[in-house]
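Hi support team,

I submitted a single chain yesterday and got back a structure, but I'm not sure I'm reading the token output correctly. Could someone confirm the output below corresponds to the sequence I sent? I've pasted both exactly as they appear in my results page.

Thanks,
R.
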Amino acid sequence: MNASEPIVVHKGLDNVYVDESSICLIDSDDSKLYYRGYDAEELVEKSTYEEVGYLLLYGSLPTSAELNSFTKTLRDNYSIPAEVVETLRRFPRDAHPMDVLRTGVSMCASFDERENTLEANKRKAVRIVARIPALIAAHSRIRHGLDPVAPDMSLPIASNFLYMLRGEMPEEFEARVMDKVMILHAEHEMNASTFSCIVTASTMSDIYSVITSGICTLRGPLHGGANEAALSYILGVGSPEKAEGAVDNTLRSGGRIMGFGHRIYKNWDPRYRVLKPIARQLCDQKGKSLVYLTAEAIETAALKRLVDHKIFPNVDFYSGVVLNALGIETDLFTPVFAMSRSVGWVAHAIEYLENNRLIRPKTRYTGEIGRKYTPLSERTALASA
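Hi R., thanks for writing in. Yes, this is the structure output for that exact sequence:
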């Protein structure tokens, strides 16, 4: 180490660039999100999760023939091995779905091809994306004493997830909302879980290990669980007229309004802008207008008090409201996030592997040097003295 060179510690790796990527751009100043150069808001409006998945994996929007082939491959792999289903039955009923999901994904690796080339990883990546919805839905039903529902190979991935979860066909509007939610969560540049994926990929580990790393990282409440916390806060406030007092009490006590603020966006989160009107329409349709109106009142009250600090709502503030209105249990919110993000994770891992370099950062040592070894007998005598 050159003592003349100052060591700069970037805690949290803020503004540290680890690679170049053509997958995603976050324009934090103008509150825009781009997938492979396409405005994510436009993709939500005009495309499907299958189209976006193809775009993220292969770099361009598909032709009809390419989309049909990609969709067929996904649907051919909707099912999970019977042995994996039996393992899901062995979990305690109160096991967290994210714990189950990481084990299920890891176990699926044993039933896939062993080859670990770039092309093999691309094939396996599509199978992983296809199987995660079945893992989540099957475990959800099993823990409620119900049998898993076999996938419907004629359904798009979002519709099929709701079908496997409920055991009945979703309404067209519900299916489209689920599709939009999945698109909005499909990718978000070099966040914590994506970084953990490329760290694992850089060791030349298998793609199932890569996705398991992403799931484990997303499991943390500072990353994947924020929409759970936001919905809990909204439901805890209970009604619009209580919003201002609740926000004042939270801020006065030094607490946070969950679903507000973002490490990257300096202004509005574009995903929030998409989800808010969807939340209103869906809540009105499902008889949950009170939940939406309470959320909106909290948002209004919080903005009055936080706007000078440049703290705005993020995607999590209304995503929990939307998932709740779809009848999805709160502890499934993060698994749904993982289900949606899986295609972004594999896209980044594959892109990184095309020009791989083992990720090996450093830490600044602050401990002692040259400590003298004390024999065990002396340490024991000193401790008992």
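A quick pointer for reading it: The first strand starts at residue 24 and ends at 27. Let us know if anything else looks off.

Best,
Support desk
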